[in-house]
Amino acid sequence: MTAAACKFRVLGGKYVLGDVLGVGGMATVYAATQPSLDRCVAVKMLRPELETNPYMVCRFRNEALAASRLSHPNVASVIDFARTDGGIYYLVMEYVRGRRLTQLLHESGPPTLQRVAVLCDQLLTAVAEVHAAGVVHGDLKADNVIVEVMRDRREFAKLIDFGLASFEGEIEAVVDQPVLAGTPEYLAPEVILGAPTSIASDLYAVGVIIYELITGATPFAGGASAEILARHVGEDVIPPSLRCAQRVVPRRLDMVVCRALAKRPEERFASATEFAQAIAEAIHGFAEPELAAGAHPESKWLATTAPTRDWGPDDAGGKPRRLAAGTAPHPKIEAGDDQAPAFASAPAGSDTLYAQKVLRSAASELERALPALVGAELRWRIKLTLATLYVELGERVRARRAARAALDHAASGGSAVGQQQARAVLDRLAQPNVS
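and the corresponding structure tokens:
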């Protein structure tokens, strides 16, 4: 547990902090108990260094306000929001026992389409409730869906983390966002180009999640963040049935997913309810063949040579091909286009894509483990490992941050070897051609 956590081990005389559940750029989440009601809760604490940052404080308060508007079985409820005497903001939430959807994907392999439909129906029911309350979630992704297994063995999905939420009709009142916020793999094209998050961008993100459940990968993954963002804006999505050719996906489901991932917001589903109904109709009466015995799950998931593709003009008329309803052709991003971000896209092969998933999973596990580690020796070694992983993933900013942290930990622990290795990584990152 961190020093900050020890200092505020008992919050407001009501909550006793336990283990760290997760660490993010804005806050740390702890398991906790509420002795007065003898129940487990989750406490999310704004990082101490951000308490004087008006934008981050506003975001944290918005999260509490947005979640407090909601009361739905598929949405994690907010119990309390306050500030300690020491000035640290904290949010108390329902403790959801389960695993993140991302973890289930990594551990269990491809779910059946019937299971996909059940989980997505629950997720879209939650999203419909969020939108009905005048809230835009703004950060829908597989990591923000927790799946509980009930006593009767049914799976029950819960939506969490309203840290990037905004309010319909009140977006102008929110403190201006200094940077593009969100996870690149799930960002809608119009948000990447500067538009505020909206119902349409939320539904686009759900489309990404469904695509991920069916194929095992998000539709535009692979490479550095800038490359992923460029693909969202300028590349057509490959329908799930072509992305995992060894799996039978009904054409109707292809069409539903591709419509959800349409580049233009007005071409997507008008509401979460309409989206859920379309999924139910697409798989109604469909009997999915069983996977061959002994087949390696990943081989079923990654059966194409690239996550996206420039289909180019066909031989008759010179018009770009359309793959399915909802995949309107879009031009490639051209240098100097003032409506597009200044980065270029590059497809990655399926082997690269799978390797990147493994590396990202390893980096994520290391980030989660780090707060529980003690001793500068362990910390600089873990941070240096993270820096190396981020270099391989093409995330130079994260790599530099991890390498600098490794250097600091090595210096505080008096490790000359650690300092030397950390400086070597920083020197490498200073070279412009490091990938």
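(Above: one complete record from the training split.) The chain has a mean pLDDT of 77.
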